[in-house]
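dude i think i finally got it to work??
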Amino acid sequence: MGTRDQGDSDVPPRADNETVGPRRAELRHSEPDAVVCALTGDLDLDSLGSVQPVLDEAIGSGPSRLVIDLSGVGFCDSSGLNLLLSLRLDTEREGIALRLAAPTDQLSRLLQLTGADGVFTISRTVPDALATG
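look at this
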């Protein structure tokens, strides 16, 4: 389980037996041909049900570029990683350029340890990801 800062007002305090939630995904059309999907909270088995429909919507909107803003992800486990890897295949199949932006230290380390950093285009910031056409 991940940890959250005390200032994260969108997430109520958790009981000892709860996982951190809610996991939120928000779409922004930043340019005519690009969609940014900002993920916040933990990217784990419990969050997939709330994140997947938003990612499907992003792909279905038919952008030429999809940027996943990971700056708000507090924790990512193997199911979250599998979601990102599956997203890569889905976007590739649809001819959409996928970019990951601003991964947290924990997520960067997970991508590095698993070798997944070699299959994604990863940028330090969302503007950098949008600039890499």
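The two ends are 35 Å apart (CA to CA).
im so relieved honestly
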